[in-house]
Amino acid sequence: MTDYRELNRANWDDRAAAHAASPGYAVDRFAADPAYLSEVVRFDLPLLGDIAGLRGVHLQCHIGTDTVSLARLGATMTGLDFSDKSLEQARRIAALAGADVTFVRSDVYDAVSAVGEGYDLVYTGVGALCWLPDIRRWAATVAALLKPGGRLFIREGHPVLWSLDYDRRDGLVALEHPYFETVEGQVWDEAGTYVETDVEFAHNKTVEWNHGLGEIVTAVLEAGLTVTGLAEHTSVPWEALENGQMTDIGHGEFQLADRPDRLPHSYTLQAVKAPV
């Protein structure tokens, strides 16, 4: 059987250039405006706070627009991703933006050997955890990357959102896919992507896993971190449901068109490693 990493890497390699060329990632804005931040990081700012002077690593950084944004906020950033093509775009975008960011190719679970330890900040953005089969191993990796007193910051799509039937035509919000982590991942074969593009892709099969919110928090606690914040949000930074079920509310955020308070769209989790 093909390894899930090979399938997923081929999928991301195939889409990296199209993502960088799409209006959603606004690469031209990074080149034109030295103060420009990605919409994802701008959403994070009220909870993220001042990160100037921190040494940070961005796990699963993709094409690096959020990594560059964190560097523009004054952090010394390293971006890590397993996709060579994504990192090619990330390095190009950082150069266009005039940002001093280091990008390293590695699987998340090998991050410590790839980029070392002692970080003040581990940052993970939206749409990352679903590519990982074992949330406890992820949390242990985060804990190993952080120095004592260091901080985890993650905003992610809510596991309730991930478990919905995405393509319903009757307007109902229905749970269809696993909420909890399963041994075998969900196999998808989808030709498109989440940005506007006319590109046709060759590698469309992926393997993904959901992780319940309790599983994520428990994994973080078992890794020795102390949870300092958990906020749930009524928006998410992509059009997660099809057939007109979501409304664009601006600033890159979407929410359920009908009674959005019914659905936790995303969450922000923060935790710290105990000081020595």
TrEMBL record:
Origin superkingdom? Bacteria
Keywords in alphabetical order: Methyltransferase, Transferase
Which species is this UniProt entry from? Paractinoplanes ovalisporus
Spell out the Pfam families in the cross-references.
Methyltransf_12
InterPro entries recorded for this chain? Methyltransf_12, SAM-dependent_MTases_sf
Any idea which GO molecular function terms this record carries?
methyltransferase activity
Which CDD domains does the record match to this protein? AdoMet_MTases
TM stretches of this protein:
none
Q: Name one GO biological process term.
A: methylation
What is this protein's name? Class I SAM-dependent methyltransferase
Methyltransferase type domain residues are: 58-152
